[in-house]
Amino acid sequence: MASLPPWRGIRIGSTPRGEAPLAIRRAWIGLTLPLLETAPSAPETMVVEIGFRNPAGLLSALKQRLGFKPPTAIWQAYTVQAASALRLLENHSPEAARWWRQNTPWLYQPAQVLAFDADCCELVFGERVPANEP
Q1: pTM (two decimals)
Q2: Helix axes 94-103, 82-92, angle to 10 degrees
Q3: Are 9 and 21 in contact (CB under 8 A)?
Q4: Percentage of the chain with pLDDT > 90?
Q5: According to DSSP H, which parts of the chain are helical?
Q6: d(CA 43, CA 102)
Q7: What ranges make up the beta strands (E) of 6-127?
């Protein structure tokens, strides 16, 4: 019988980059989040959209139709499934999770991902999913 591959995740050790308020970004510190199953075990170079946009919003749709592109930055980052990460954040900091739910509701859709810059986290391996302590 084949053994399961080790669990892979990231432990957030310092404040992640991003556009959320500082207190909201700090709420991630201490959490261990599972990497996407398809994510490599090393940070990826990726283009990250800067600034929040509501894909269902009228202004966002108009800007897209007119050819406007959101501002971007290049990061070395790890990707996690957004809804799963936000559920873990809910247990750790309900106030921060509430902010995400109010300001970025589309991130709760199954296909959405969050990127965490490699400088704020460390890669972790384990036999099972670690418990997140509040």
Answers
A1: 0.77
A2: 140
A3: no
A4: 46
A5: 22-26, 58-65, 82-92, 94-103
A6: 29
A7: 7-12, 32-34, 44-49, 72-81, 113-117, 121-126
Helix (H/G/I), strand (E/B), else coil: 62 = helix
Phi-psi region of 47 (alpha: psi -120 to 50; beta: other; left: phi over 0): beta
* Angstrom distance (rounded) from CA 53 to CA 44: 23
- Tokens 């432990």 belong to residue: 11
pLDDT at 134: 42
- Which DSSP state fits 133? P
Q: What is the pLDDT of residues 34-78, one digit of tens each?
A: 988 777 778 888 777 765 555 555 555 566 677 777 677 788 899
